[in-house]
Amino acid sequence: MLKLSNTVEIPAAEIELTAIRAQGPGGQNVNKVASAIHLRFDIQDSSLPTFYKEQLLQLSDQRITKDGVIIIKAQQFRTQDKNREDALNRLAQLIKSAVVQRKKRKKSRPGKAANKKRLDAKTHKGQIKKMRQPVSGNE
What we know:
Layout: E1 2-3, E2 9-10, E3 15-20, H1 29-32, E4 36-42, H2 50-58, E5 69-74, H3 80-99, H4 112-132
Antiparallel strand pairs: 1-2, 3-4, 4-5
Helix pairs in contact: 2-3
């Protein structure tokens, strides 16, 4: 059972965990022991609330397939138990991040002082450029 919040839990039967051989260096141990974990979680067939499902399916995450299956491969640790725990934590993190309500951005405008400062700088630049022009009329 994976607990996401006080009201939302995912039963262990909905999460498919498979032990596979890890990639990368590790000597002979890497060829013998299946220490990596391959996690599969079907969003459509899960018991998650509809809001959670909709938010997850809208995510543009490479770990979510077109069919709505989350695939996580955990092989960071040398033991299968730690990799299993890591995969479940990453699944929980992904689901929690999808349902976080983001604050709407308030449109802001520059203040009066900032506007005045900008206009003063413009007039100052204009005066400097005017001073660079050749003097005419007294020939």
